[in-house]
Each structure stands twice: as C-alpha cells, then as structure tokens.
Amino acid sequence: MPTTRLLLTTDTHIPRRARLLPEPLLAAISAADVVVHAGDWVDEATLDLFTARARRLVAVYGNNDGPELRARLPEVARADVDGLRLAVVHETGAAAGRERRCAARFPDTDLLVFGHSHIPWDTTAPGGLRLLNPGSPTDRRSQPQHTYMTADVTDGVLTDVRLVAL
C-alpha cells in the first residue's frame, strides 16, 4: 500500500497574529495528501486558501472562530486515512490528565490532532491513542519557533512524525 503524507497545523490566527501564512507551510499544504487543521483560523479567507490548495482537508473550528467558520466546520472531525482512525478537535483541556481524558473521549481513534495551546505535543495514551499538537505557524507564544507537523500513514500506521520549525 502506498504512503499517505499528512500535514498537521492549527492556530493560524490570520490576520490577527500574522498577515500571511509562511511560504514553507503553503508549499507543504500543496505537497500533502491530507491536510489537518485543528482550528482557530480566525478568517474565512484562510479556510478558502486551504480548501483550494489541499487535496483533502480535515478541519474543525476553534474558540476564536466566529459564526461564519462555525457554520462551515464541525467542532470535532473524524476521518479514515488509509485505515488510520483520525479525530481532530481544537481544545483538550489542561495538560495534566490529557491522555486519560482523550482516550476516554475518543476510544475508537488511533490519532487525535488538537490545538489551542500553541505548544507542540506528542504523547501516546495507555491503549495506544497518539496525541499530536503541531503548535502554531504564526503565533509561537512562549515557544522558541513557529511550527507545524508532518507525518506518514502506511497500512493504517502513523510513521515518521516530524515537528517542522519555521
């Protein structure tokens, strides 16, 4: 079975935190087979740009997204990516106990992509649920760099997860 290339991003906050998306992120969107965005778009033009560039987009709204974006996007998205059971949500609550809470909330999921904190996160819950937060490509907050993630899916297995610094 061929490998599916994923691009994971969240918290783009256009135009509040940046006027434009970084060029390397735009190139990565076009190169990916599946693009995942975990919310806080802020403006519809960014969603339109992702929709136009991505081969397949799996996305949710975040707490900073207004009624127009909420009308177009779900709070939780689920997708099958070549046998990998993917879920996307913006907020997962406090870091303490996150794995346990998310494993209980998403029992039939292999990978949960989330955002909100702007802090990259990569852990695995007991039972095997992988939790990934790609950080933010436009608002690094307390982090040293702006980031997004890439990964591969082969035969339903997530491999080669990479945090990409901008």
Helical residue percent band: 10-25%
Overall pLDDT: 96
Q: Which shape, going by the Cα principal axes?
A: globular
Order of helices and strands: EHEHEHEEHEEEEE
Give the low-pLDDT segments.
Answer: none
The number of helical runs is 4
Count all strands and give the number: 10
Rg, Å, rounded: 14 Å
End-to-end CA span: 31 Å
- Structural class determined from secondary elements: alpha/beta
The proportion of residues in beta strands is 25-35%
**Physical arrangement of strands within the biggest beta sheet:** 3-2-1-9-10
Question: Explain this structure to me?
Answer:
- The strands form two sheets. Strands 3-2-1-9-10 form a five-stranded mixed β-sheet, covered by helices on one side. A five-stranded mixed β-sheet has the order 4-5-6-8-7, with no helix packed on it.
- The model has no long low-confidence stretch (mean pLDDT 96).
- Strand 5, helix 4 (98-105) and strand 6 (111-113) form a beta-alpha-beta unit.
- It is built from four helices and ten strands; from the N terminus they run βαβαβαββαβββββ.
- 20% of the residues lie in helices and 32% in strands.
- The protein has helices at residues 23-31, 44-53, 67-72, 98-105; strands at 4-9, 34-37, 57-59, 76-81, 84-89, 111-113, 121-124, 130-133, 147-154, 157-165.
- It has 166 residues and is of the alpha/beta class.
List keywords for this structure.
166 residues, alpha/beta, five-stranded mixed β-sheet
What's this, in brief?
This protein is of the alpha/beta class and 166 residues long. It has helices spanning 23-31, 44-53, 67-72, 98-105; strands spanning 4-9, 34-37, 57-59, 76-81, 84-89, 111-113, 121-124, 130-133, 147-154, 157-165.
